[in-house]
Amino acid sequence: MLMEKRKLLVNKFSSFISFTDNRYQNKIQFNWNIDCELENNMKLKIEADPDAKESFWAQYFLKILLSQSKLDNQADIIVNPECSFPIAKRHLSAYLQEACFRAAKDIYKEFKYIRHKYSLEEYFQIANIAANSPGKFFRNFSFDWDKVNVESYAITGFKRFIRNQIYQQDLEARRTRYSNYGLLKNLSPGEFHEALVARNFSNRQITIYSIVWRCFVEIFHPENNRFTKTRHPSEDELQAIANYYNQRCIQYNISQIPASKTTIQEILSTCISAAKNYRTKQYFSLEEDYYSISDGAPSTLDILIKEEECQQVREIVEKIFTDMPKLCQIVFKLWQGLNLTQTEIANLLHLKYPELQKQYQVARQLKKYTRNILKSFISEWNETSSKKPIDSEQDIERVKSAFDKCIKFHCEQIFFATLDRIMNKFTNEEKENVFNNIKFGNVLVDYQESKNLEKSLNDFIKIKLKLLDYFQQYLEDSMDLEKNSLSVVNHKILEFVNEWIKVKQDYFI
Amino acid sequence: MDQSKTRLFHIIGNNKMLKINDWIEIYPEHLWLEVSASEQEALWRKSLANDYSNKSAHHRSFINDLCLNAFLKWLEDEPDLQKKLNIHKPSYNLYQRWEFVHGIELISNHNRLVIIPNEQDDIREFRIPQEWVDIHNWAANYYLAAQLNLEEEWLRIWGFVSYEKVRKKAQYDSIDRTYRVQQSDMIADIDIMWLTQELCATNLKNSALATTKPQLEPLPKLSEIQGIKVIEQLSKPTLYSPRLDIDFKVWGTILSSDKYQELLYEQRIKKSQGYVMENAHKIVQNLNLWYENIFSEGWQTVDELLNLADMKAFQFRSDSVLNEICVKGAKLIDLGLQLERKSVVLLIGLSPQIDSKVGVRVQLYPVSGETYLPASLKLSLLSESGKTIQSVESRSYDNYIQLRRFKLPLGKFFSIQVILKDVNIIENFILENFVCS
User: Fold this and answer.
1) Which of A227, A334, B162, B293 could staple A222 via S-S, CB 3.0–4.6 A?
2) Edge-to-edge strand ranges of the sheet holding B413-420
3) Of chain B residues 89-118, which have a CB less than 8 A from chain A?
């Protein structure tokens, strides 16, 4: 899972991530594969312009791409003498590989509750689809923005793309739950249009079918408050749809033989089959209109928050967080620190806090707290930082994603510090054992070594259990939880401790 | 590139449908609200009891009312927010608007919000009916997108978009007269909207919209005769909303006037009742809903109406005359919409009888500071077949009139008729069962 970043400038624009199944370790490995054509081309370019930096090349390829996209619209193709459009596109795709990986990793971390359904490599592949059509993806990108970084723009966009794709994919999985007419009612006008386009309908046909479909949507309703599987339009309803449709055709000056209810029935059946196909399409697509970020580009503010002012942000977050009500702190620590789901939090807290019985309530409470913390944060920011006040909904939206990360980071840090303190109670030998052993899993060893290893592994497990035990006790005490109440989520605690060991291990070496 | 597609093909082969609790976790920035089956049931019955001219409008009112209800309930849980925003109780003509178009208008201290509910799964686009954007007294500062899933019993507000952004980014769809906003042009977390209002005062002041109404192309003026003619044309019974039947500008003019809108609504209801009756259906007030405090369109508890009407005059009478009665409902009845406005209050009280029949008391009062009823106002009880059973007529100085108290077995239809000159209003009722605490 660990992946090295590319260091050479040539590689950054000429290599792609590929994965292989490592059967021995039963996991998937990421590798960099170099595309020779791109490599040669890139070498020549760097020779010609040795001072140009990474960001220059990223913008250079993007410019070729965007100008070409504009030309496409005018159906006027000019070959760029320096670099052809397909080559530029591939260079940029190569460059965006790390952004894909980063986005996938972020999402994997954020969507901890569906890890059993989606793996890191799946997220990566989804992001890669967007990276493979950079022209569409960067459609709204503007070079006028201050300090804009192609990579961070891409990461934000890829993350949104991945999440939306999972949602879309879920719709496809849900398709079977609808009856034919139920499905037809459930389509959005956008989906309906795409479904017909996918069937290669002419524009005129699409217009006619759209009118029929909308007349159907307006007139056809469930008998009671919900649809039953068997509900389908009656003769009377079909006639009413036909009448409405005919009237609308006159309104739009569409010369068409007036439709009978049989015609309407036929058109609806065609729509149903198009709809079914549409919601079963077995691949992802980057629709022209969707998913590109419009003006959610990183602003000066983002960069301030992400880099230069990071320390200041952290200080503000820390201060605000300690001022929050105790319940708020507990819920956030469980949610963002220990990665508990909202349901797990409800199960843990509902006896003591009757307002947190259900996931819905926890979700709403979290939202309310987030709002309050964010509000304090913005006020504090505007008071202390004269550089750039937060002054519009766009500002707040941008700040919020950076801020969410800070809160998570803060909650994790609290527990990291706790683990540090607990570890201090252990002997040096014990410490060394914990931090070294984690690595053995990855290394093949000979027989003698493995004998030694066995003993040290045994010790390791004992020490780790002790550590876990102390940690759980501390968590329960500090958050006023019942004794042993955290045992049901000990897999989450274990995950957290492993994460901490990983961080420490790097440090220890 | 094609390689990645083939691989994905395999991945999607596994069935990985996510559950609602997964989605709540994945989209923490959306506002998730529960809409229980029993709530759905109650509001569905309420929408049936309300007056709408067709099934489409009934369904629309059901969906919008559910959404409104859930939203207001959430607001009750957020007293701090409500204190700052001061979202007013929705206006009466909200319910009338659902005869024509989706959308819930809420007015807060400085802003007008419109929630547009939808039952579709796809949230890549948000569609706002043109009425909410291009009619100057309908246009809102913010539009909120609500997605409703009846089967899984939830609702979420998944984003909002400001008026300016709609103007700048939305695409107009002439087939259904909607503005289409892409998800990427919206902000997912409505808290950002509240926070902007609270914290970015300077910015808002600069924006013309916060203080003044959006600048819109003026809608044409209609003369009274033209107006009545258009309304006549649009009030013919249809199974769908008449919103697309005429040029938008004329349509917008009708809706922009409360008077015209109400007239069109009333006309459509009146004509459709005739229309519906031909189809052997009948829109009736189900009186046992009153017992559950569910009042249909136009009906209120007597207490609610007391606040509206002249307190002193009312209290005395309701106390002395209706105190044996355990459920009461009242409705303001408009007599004559086009000329001088005259309203009366129709009061109905129910009391259970030992022989499992129900005693019904019907009274008519003047309203809002008036002491006397208009003269020659006729109040009648009609049987299911429309035959007059008893009636009473007001004289020159009557404070109120009432029918003799009558008893009815459960499940029996009856109608109350109010006539003044050429205005003839009929209210239909049925009482299915009755329990009195």
Assistant:
1) A227
2) B285-286, B423-430, B413-420, B378-382, B388-393
3) none
Q: Which residue has the tokens 């006639």?
A: A239
- The full set of domain ranges for chain B reads 21-281, 285-430
- CB atoms B184 and A296 under 8 Å: yes
Q: B181 with A377: CB under 8 angstroms?
A: no
- The per-residue DSSP string of A102-168 comes to HHHHHHHHHTGGGTTT--HHHHHHHHHHHHH-HHHHTTT--TTSTT--HHHHHHHHHHHHHHHHHHH
* CB-based contact B136:B158 (threshold 8 Å): no
Q: Distance between CA A371 and CA A356 in Å, rounded?
A: 18
Q: How many helices (H) and strands (E) does chain B have?
A: 17, 19
Q: Cβ–Cβ of B17/A170 closer than 8 Å?
A: yes
Which residue bears the tokens 């419109």? B114
Phi-psi region of A333 (alpha: psi -120 to 50; beta: other; left: phi over 0): alpha
Within 8 A of B122 by CB-CB distance, chain A residues are: 168, 171, 187-188, 190-191
Touching check for B162 and chain A: CB below 8 Å? yes
Interface confidence (ipTM) of the complex: 0.82
The residues in A 235-254 lying below 8 A from B, measured between CB atoms, are: 237, 240, 244, 247-248, 251
Helices (H) and strands (E) in chain A, counts: 22, 2
Q: What is the mean pLDDT of chain A?
A: 81
Burial of A119 (0-12, 13-18, 19+ CB in 10 A): middle
Question: Which residue from A274, A248, A246 is spatially nearest to A184, judged by alpha carbons?
Answer: A274
Which of B9, B15, B24, B78 to mutate: most A Cβ within 10 Å? B24
pTM for the full predicted model: 0.75
Interface touch A224/B44, C-beta < 8 Å: yes
A-chain CB neighbours of B238 within 8 Å are 244
Rounded Cα gap, residues B234 and B230, in angstroms: 6
Contact A375, B195 (CB under 8 A): yes
Q: Per-residue DSSP letters for A313-350?
A: HHHHHHHHHHHS-HHHHHHHIIIIIS---HHHHHHHHT
pLDDT in tens, B340-386: 557 788 888 777 666 667 778 888 888 766 778 888 888 999 887 77
